[in-house]
Amino acid sequence: MPSNPVLLTLQEHVHFLLNEVETHCHIVELFFTSSATGLLSNIRGRRGYVQALREKADIETARLLERRKANTTFHAQVNGMHSLVIALEMLTKHCFDCVREGTLSAPYEHPTGQDCCKLVKRIRRALRLVKVGVADNRRRTGIKLGRRTHKLLASYNELQAQTLQAKLTLSDEQLQASILSNVGLKRLIEQLSVVAEALIKADLGQVATLQNYPHLLDSASNLNYNLKDLKVRRLALTRSGSAIAAISHKSESGKNVLAVYKEGDRIKIDEEVAGVNHWRTIDPRLAPSVLSQTGRPKNGEENEQSSLLIEHIPGKTLEKLLLDGDKDGVQAALNILFKTLNRTWKTTLTPEPCTAKFMLQLQKRIGDSRRVHPEFFKDEERICGYVSTSFDELVERVATQEVQWRVPFSVLTHGDFNVDNLIYDDVEQRIYFIDLHRASYFDYVQDLSVLMVSIYRLQVLSGTTRKQMMESAKAVYRFGRRFANRQQDATFEVRLAAGLARSFATSTRFIFDKKLASRMHLRARYLLEHLAKLTPEQAQTFTLPLKEIYVE
User: Fold this and answer.
1) Average pLDDT over all residues of the chain
2) Domain Aminoglycoside phosphotransferase, which positions (predicted)?
3) N-terminal to C-terminal alpha carbon distance within the chain
């Protein structure tokens, strides 16, 4: 177990849980050899003890992490050990399922009971490996356990095939009981991989998994380091589930980051590399360079995971500056941002007309918002003779008109222009763009509307900081208006209104706070109601009701 004496109590809970899992596995062995239904009450009677051990581990974990800084080695170690506790508890549940499902039709003997018993014995040997290695060789033990899991699953597939071959000698109830009992055994084996990941996380941190461990090894090699000498610290939790981590040397405080590790779906990673390279051809100062890419497709798989090693960029995101209430920092960042956008848009401007189709985007994404806040999407209502049009009907009406609101040119856009994808380096006075997998030639209003709504949805709802946020969003609008005037873009205002309506409505899926979510949805509806009434002539002279939208 961990040598840190502070973790001694948590260590004891893990030790007792390992012993209890072995006991559960022993009962499963007995069941497969004897088919004794009385074993079900034996294994059920142990569930209370397992629950008590889990609750003690929960309490101890909370105590250990109280007032402790996140993203430290100690924090990762404790969380990893707690993940191990949860994984071990699940093993006992799958053991119980093996016995419970097998007693659905009794009395009878499992057709492959002896082979099942041998498989459970191999599982017990794998757990003994955990007992030995969890103290000082957690990472190595996790890797070994992961390899054994693959072999055990191969043996399970053979066992299940043998069970199905014996179906002619069994009644329907007996066959069902055998198959379901085998499924419980399969889940028991699969859970071993979760145990393996918990061991790896306790050593490397929450970013590490069995799947990305080879990528981390490659990343360390590309940095000319051994992985055991590096610290992997999570930087962000993305909505897609991709891991973003800082890699630094263990001997240092962690502030001197060597590189940023990012993983995700291979197609998205490939798109991000292409986006970064494209932006860097326009201006090499705009995006961090890609140091390496690992994870290539195998056997024609389309969803293979991949990873990037990216140059670490110093500075703060625009989101951080806004939330900190750093008025001077925000103003400086926006000034540099506007200069950067003005320069890059002019450089990449092409005379190809473009239609953003904001309403089509909205229709594709609104389902998640509808599930989170169903009360926002009522059908048509009548109040004292006034007819309130349904949200979907408003979207349909605006979509019909939107085809006429074309921008006469296209520019290279970011595609996900949120406040957390813009980094400002106050030393170099530079803006960097990150997360560029959606970069494309498109309507620049898309980026502006996404940025303005990402500022609005920051969950500071009052005070000076909130006021500063509203002023920042208005500054983005004024910059866009100036650029549109120079390019003689006559439908800038009406397209921005449609873009804002789209982003306000779809972004409520990320906001649980009803007060903020309601404000956003009402703003989307307000804009849609205005747009739905416009004639083609009025669209040319439409002015965005900025004061009504960005006022609290």
Assistant:
1) 86
2) 296-454
3) 54
d(CA 162, CA 159): 5
| Alpha carbon separation from 228 to 82, 204, 209, 235, 332 (Å, rounded) | 22, 9, 15, 19, 40
CB-count burial class (<10 Å; 0-12, 13-18, 19+) for 304: middle
The number of angstroms, rounded, from the C-alpha of 33 to the middle of its chain's C-alpha atoms is 44
Range 18-29 average pLDDT = 91
The DSSP line for 70-103 is SSSHHHHHHHHHHHHHHHHHHHHHHHHHHHHHHT
Phi-psi region at 238: left, alpha or beta (left = phi > 0; alpha = psi -120 to 50) = beta
Residue 72's nearest CA partner among 216, 205, 201 is 205
Q: 1 falls in which pLDDT band (50, 70, 90)?
A: very low
**For 310-342, how does the pLDDT look when each residue is reduced to its tens digit (9 = 90+)?**
888 889 999 999 999 999 999 999 999 999 999
- The whole-angstrom separation of Cα 234 and Cα 346 is 37
DSSP collapsed to 3 states, 230-255: EEEEEEEECCCCCEEEEEEECCCCCC
Nearest to 318 by CA among 294, 340, 295, 344: 340
Residue 440 pLDDT more than 90?
yes
Q: Where are the alpha helices (DSSP H) in 315-403?
A: 318-323, 327-348, 358-372, 391-402
Q: Where are the alpha helices (DSSP H) in 166-225?
A: 172-204, 213-222
Q: How many CB atoms lie within 10 A of CB 485?
A: 11
How far is Cα 160 from Cα 54, in angstroms, rounded to an integer? Answer: 32
Taking the C-alpha atoms of residue 137 and residue 467, their distance in angstroms, rounded to an integer, is 52
Helices (H) and strands (E) in the chain, counts: 19, 12
Residue 101 in contact with residue 181, Cβ under 8 Å? Answer: yes
Residue from 219, 213, 245 nearest 76 by CA: 245
Instruction: Say if CB 33 and CB 66 are below 8 A apart.
Output: no
Q: What is the mean pLDDT of residues 75-93?
A: 88
pLDDT of the residue at 2: 45
Residues 6+ apart with CB under 8 A from 65: 75, 78, 79
Helix (H, G, I), strand (E, B) or coil at 35: coil
d(CA 66, CA 338): 43
pLDDT in tens, 454-476: 999 998 888 999 999 999 999 99
Q: How confident is the model at residue 343 (pLDDT cuts 50, 70, 90)?
A: very high
Can you tell me whether residue 210 is helix, strand or coil?
A: coil
- pLDDT tens digits for 493-538? 999 999 999 999 999 998 988 999 999 999 999 999 999 999 999 9
Pairwise CA distance, residues 79 & 85, whole Å: 10
Burial of 249 (0-12, 13-18, 19+ CB in 10 A): middle
Instruction: Of 316, 318, 327, give the one whose Cα is nearest residue 463.
Output: 327
Largest Cα separation within the chain, whole Å, is 85
Strand partners, 424: 316, 431
At residue 21, the pLDDT reads 92
Is the N-terminal amide bond of 107 cis, ω within 30° of 0? Answer: yes
